[in-house]
Specification:
With 334 residues, this protein is α/β, with parallel strands linked by helices. The chain has 10 helices and 13 strands. The chain binds uridine-5'-diphosphate.
Length: 334
């Protein structure tokens, strides 16, 4: 299939392009390169453009005639979304709307949407099933939930079928070492911890150790990016087959690790000392997020290959050591 991949130059998008190509599909990346990297686009053409730019979007769609869409392009910094919600609603919600209207106008019949466990807010039970109430506690999660709801309305009104994939914490890097996580600024726990291990940062700050969890730090469900990528291939193929599918699937390992456990595992994997400083809670962080991904196991036969946290961190560490700044000090986080 020819597939338009918005945000295909980003972390999860680029790993998905690799997985799509391995399954015989052509990923056409549409990315404004605000956070994406041209070097990460290796398995199909790169078209530079913004989702809000309908003219450019129409031109790319007319040129390639994609049969489906996988939609990653979005801002994804939880903390920033709390401070600057307008940026998130404009880009994530209005941008998605522009894309969906283009799909409607060009008759593109299905879309896999990159959603998030942040749509659940503070969970009432763990592991979280897809049927759990969605009450996001930050504008990032709210923006993704709004798009999930718009997708439902577009299905009813225009017959555009969709699957929203609600990721827990994406982690790790391509096991072949071709691509990996390269956010700028970097705010995610595992890459930051590895930068400390690599000598680029003096310490890792733990955002709160007074949560109601066994060691007081937040618990998250880390899922390897290659496993996430494979789920997108299965989801778009399921939509193309015409079989009935639910509106959303969780993607997680079903196992939670605390911030302290992640740091200890990274120290063991890298063999480096990782100095830790305790800091304040980060606004918008629920104490515990662990997903139940049983539905996509059963329906689409998806099975994560990386269920061991040390192995996930190992792939990230291998990638990290190849980065140009490895061993050099990085500017402090603003
Ligand atoms: N975290 C932390 N220090 C950091 C970055 C993150 O303690 O420098 C914590 C954060 O509060 C959360 C967990 O690590 O509990 C995972 O955060 P990350 O930003 O990697 O992913 P998110 O949960 O926001 O998707």
């Amino acid at each position: 299939m020819r597939l338009l991949v918005t945000g295909g130059a980003g972390y999860i998008g680029s790993h998905t392009c690799k997985a799509l190509a391995a399954s015989g599909h052509l990923p056409i990346t549409y990315d404004n390169l605000v956070y994406g990297h041209p070097w990460a686009v290796r398995w199909g053409p790169l078209e530079i453009g913004d989702l809000a730019d309908r003219q450019r979007l129409d031109q790319v769609i007319q040129h390639y005639r994609p049969e489906g869409v996988i939609h990653f392009a979005a801002y994804a910094y939880v903390g920033e979304s709390v401070k600057d919600p307008g940026k998130y609603y404009r880009n994530n919600v209005a941008g998605s709307l522009s894309l969906l209207e283009a799909m409607r106008d060009h008759g593109i019949p299905y879309i896999v949407f990159s959603s998030t466990c942040a749509t659940y807010g503070v969970p009432e039970r763990i592991p979280i099933p897809e049927s759990h109430p969605q009450r996001p506690i930050n504008p990032y999660g709210q923006s993704k939930l709004m798009v999930e709801q718009i997708l439902q309305d577009f299905q009813v009104a225009h017959g555009i079928r969709s699957i929203s994939l609600r990721y827990f914490n994406a982690a790790g890097a391509d096991p072949d070492g071709e691509i990996g996580e390269a956010h700028d600024p970097e705010t995610h726990l595992i890459p930051l911890v590895l930068e400390v291990a690599g000598g680029q940062r003096p310490h890792i700050t733990v955002f709160g150790d007074d949560y109601d969890t066994p060691d007081g730090t937040c618990i998250r469900d880390y899922i390897h990016v290659t496993d996430l990528a494979q789920a997108h291939v299965l989801a778009i193929e399921a939509l193309a087959s015409g079989r009935p599918v639910p509106a959303a699937y969780n993607l997680g390992n079903g196992q939670g690790f605390s911030v302290k456990e992640v740091i200890a595992t990274a120290a063991a994997v890298t063999g480096k000392r990782i100095p830790v400083q305790m800091g304040a809670r980060r606004p918008g962080d629920p104490p515990r997020l662990v997903g139940d991904a049983g539905a996509i196991f059963r329906d689409l036969n998806w099975k994560p290959l990386y269920t061991d946290l040390a192995e996930i961190i190992q792939t990230a560490w291998r990638w990290h050591q190849k980065r140009p700044y490895f061993g050099k000090s990085r500017p402090p986080l603003s």
